[in-house]
Amino acid sequence: MSLLWLLLMICAFSGDSGGGGGPGGFIQMAVAEHVRDLEVSEGVPIGHQIGFIGEFVHDDSGDSGPPYLIVPVPGSAVDTDLAIDHTTGEIRTKVALDRENRSSYSLVAIPLSGENVRVVVRVLDENDNAPTFPTPIMSIEFPENTPRDVKRTLNPARDADLGRYNTQRYSIVSGNVNNAFRLSSHRERDGVLYLDLQINGFLDRETTPAYSLVVEALDGGSPPLRGQMTVNITIQDVNDNQPIFNQSRYFATVPENATLGTTVLQVYATDQDAGENGQVEYAINRRQSDKEQMFRIDPSTGLISVNKPLDFETRELHELVVVAKDRGMQPLETTAFVSIRVTDVNDNQPIINVIFLSDDATPKISESAQPGEFVARISVNDPDSRTEYSNVNVTLSGGEGHFGLTTRDNIIYLVIVSLPLDREIKPNYTLSVIATDTGNPPLHAAKDIFLTVTDINDNAPEFEKDVYHANVMEVADPGTSVIQVTAIDRDEGNNSAIVYSLLDTPDTHSHWFQIDSHSGLITTRAHIDCETDPVPQLIVMAQDNGRPPLSSTGTVLVTIHDVNDNEPIFDQSFYNVSVAENESKGRCILKGNIWAD
């Protein structure tokens, strides 16, 4: 088509060839031209009319009007993106235009005569691009002592649109706890609105160690398009907190015969800072206390232990000044006072003897035991005392109130039942007998009793259901499985062993069925008949092996499904009837019954 059009153009100008290179020549005409500017918004529908090549061209321009020979400027994508009617000069869109990909199109329209028309189609911007951050997440750090107004540069959002449709402002939409930060921005020559994050208050890592800000960029559209970025801010620690002891003064006692290395007590201090700024070391201030170094302290754990032999008669009380210091570049420290009292030696603990009063002298008690019944006999002696039965205080703990301790002479103690027992609720108890002598300081001895509650047959078997429903065909052979019932017994041993049986109920045809005494599986014993009893009712009994045995019953309703196993039967084998000779047609002369099971 382009070749044909070129031939037509050559023919059109051939009439002026005699004039040589005169004004009518093709070469001279191709040099003269005027410009036609057109505009179209990006995103208009395909086929949208942009305008006409010759529209509003003045008559003195020398343009003869359409048809035109269209010559696109190389690389301007006119052929692919625009539809140009050379016969009318109309220009329409062939594809959806995108200013961000191509902002203008250029072509030259050559008429049959007159000046050429240089057409420039400019694509106008629309707000079709949201501001976009280069990364969805950005991480920065601030030391917690950073002054107010200090800023960090954040990645700016970029918007492919122009002018007011470009990025116009930023805001923090969430995560700005206590309004700790604010944003500032400035636009540079490249048109990008650059972004800074500034400190707006005071940062404290111990209060808020990190922030996660959601920063939003908005353009100037109506409504504006938005883009978001998450800024994760880590607050770096500085050594601004001194260690703090959990007590300002500590008290402890230690016997005078304590061996070297015996732990006396542990001091404990915490530092809210992080890393080495929060690591605490302990020391004893030897200039102010314990110059004889009778005690030492573990610098990491704060454990104070005996460093030299102690003597109650020489010195009864030791006062220590303990220092807790962190490991910061400029360490901070605090002090606490420790009072250690050396006690005279009472170096023998009471001895506890327990005799269980069960039939085999083992630690057990029946769940049927009544309040006041004896469980064990306890006697205590103290090697430090000259008497056989020393005056030792005995206490009993544990048992959840089901057991108590009684004595008449503070010499022999009896463990008794205080509350009713139930093995099925709690089968074992741990009791602790504590004996305290009258020494100074008193010594303690403890002995644990692991008591077992033995079972009695106080729980009957319980079926999973009160009523079971089963289905079986009328033609089922003897031995066909019907249903399996299950009962449980909360007792143990023989008291929980269950035997199943069917109660003999002839009126409900229980003889048709049988049950496995161990598994509870019910099967047919004989042929069953739906016509005789369509829903036999069975009574199952579950009985344990206790002495005496306990039992319970459950009901099984068996639905027998009928099959066609009976032929129809007349109610009598011979019928005799008389009829008058003038009886009208259709009159009933005999009515009999036919039975079908």
From TrEMBL:
<keyword id="KW-0106">Calcium</keyword>
<keyword id="KW-1003">Cell membrane</keyword>
<keyword id="KW-0325">Glycoprotein</keyword>
<feature type="domain" description="Cadherin">
    <location>
        <begin position="246"/>
        <end position="352"/>
    </location>
</feature>
<dbReference type="GO" id="GO:0009653">
    <property type="term" value="P:anatomical structure morphogenesis"/>
</dbReference>
<feature type="domain" description="Cadherin">
    <location>
        <begin position="32"/>
        <end position="133"/>
    </location>
</feature>
<feature type="signal peptide">
    <location>
        <begin position="1"/>
        <end position="19"/>
    </location>
</feature>
<feature type="domain" description="Cadherin">
    <location>
        <begin position="365"/>
        <end position="463"/>
    </location>
</feature>
<feature type="domain" description="Cadherin">
    <location>
        <begin position="464"/>
        <end position="570"/>
    </location>
</feature>
<dbReference type="GO" id="GO:0007156">
    <property type="term" value="P:homophilic cell adhesion via plasma membrane adhesion molecules"/>
</dbReference>
<dbReference type="InterPro" id="IPR015919">
    <property type="entry name" value="Cadherin-like_sf"/>
</dbReference>
<feature type="domain" description="Cadherin">
    <location>
        <begin position="134"/>
        <end position="245"/>
    </location>
</feature>
<dbReference type="InterPro" id="IPR020894">
    <property type="entry name" value="Cadherin_CS"/>
</dbReference>
<dbReference type="InterPro" id="IPR002126">
    <property type="entry name" value="Cadherin-like_dom"/>
</dbReference>
<keyword id="KW-0677">Repeat</keyword>
<dbReference type="GO" id="GO:0005886">
    <property type="term" value="C:plasma membrane"/>
</dbReference>
<dbReference type="Pfam" id="PF00028">
    <property type="entry name" value="Cadherin"/>
</dbReference>
<protein>
    <recommendedName>
        <fullName>Cadherin domain-containing protein</fullName>
    </recommendedName>
</protein>
<keyword id="KW-1133">Transmembrane helix</keyword>
<keyword id="KW-0732">Signal</keyword>
<keyword id="KW-0812">Transmembrane</keyword>
<dbReference type="GO" id="GO:0005509">
    <property type="term" value="F:calcium ion binding"/>
</dbReference>
<dbReference type="InterPro" id="IPR050174">
    <property type="entry name" value="Protocadherin/Cadherin-CA"/>
</dbReference>
<keyword id="KW-0472">Membrane</keyword>
<dbReference type="GO" id="GO:0060429">
    <property type="term" value="P:epithelium development"/>
</dbReference>
